[in-house]
Amino acid sequence: MDSSVLDHFGFSRLPFSKNISPKEPFPTSSYSEALARLQYGIGSEDFLLLTGPVGVGKSVALLALIHSLDPNAYSPIYIRGNDLGEGELYKSILASLDRDPPRYTQPARSMFFSVLPELGRKPIAVIDDAQEMKDAALLSLKSLANFDSDSRSRITFILSGQPELRARLKLAQYHALKQRIRLFYHMKPMSLEETCRYIDHQTKAAGNPNPLFSDTAKADIHRHADGIPR
To answer: pLDDT by residue (tens digit) across 32-85?
Structure first.
């Protein structure tokens, strides 16, 4: 946006940028519930599932979770699920744990199993767009979280994705994995009231404390955006 436009509205930055700091998210009821469930589950659960339509705020909630983790207790790992294969999954985790992963899938898998018990901090592996993972990678997750007789949760996988992810997990081949997911949440679009507060919150955070949009305009924005902030 041209600086003259920012100056005209009294903004110091773009009010509706997609790059939202985890320190200043707008706390919709869905966002707050998602973050609370994720924070509750990372200590004891092997798998957490977060779904919602594109732009609803899943990534914002995940970044806020990562930002809130105790660095002495947890090692956050962020992985894109787009076309992610089994070998790439192991290598991404190992690289994030400052290990030099082997070139091939089976040695990388073996290294994962040998490294995990030695870690002083619990890895929290966030897989975004998990609905795009290849079958072999998604199917391998159950064994990665349950590879010994120790009852402790040594790693937590957070699967985040669009509604298609939940539909995919209902397929017979993923039955064993789905049974392990005891904590899940589906994020919903904002209500009209939340949309109105969100617009005022964003323009104020950008530097203009005065309301810029009428109630009618906010209602129109909510209707056209279907309550999705992106």
So the answer is: 999 999 999 998 899 999 999 999 999 999 999 999 999 999 999 999 999 999
Q: Hey, is 230 helix, strand or coil?
A: coil
Element (H, E) at 169: helix 163-169
Residue type, 54: V
What pTM does this model have? 0.89
**Closest C-alpha among 17, 8, 19, 22 to residue 210:** 8
Cβ(154)–Cβ(125) under 8 Å? no
The closest of 46, 44, 43 to 144, measured between CA atoms, is 46
Q: What is the DSSP string of 145-159?
A: H--SS--S---EEEE
Q: Which of 171, 145, 209 is nearest to 9 (CA)?
A: 209
Q: Where are the beta strands (DSSP E) in the chain?
A: 47-51, 74-80, 122-128, 156-161, 183-186
Q: What backbone phi and psi angles, to 5 degrees, belong to 15? A: -80, -20
Decide yes or no: CATH 3.40.50.300 for domain 29-186. yes
Nearest Cα to 10, choosing from 208, 223, 216, 229?
208
- Please report which helix (H) or strand (E) contains residue 58, including its range: helix 58-68
Residue position matching structure tokens 């199917």: 139
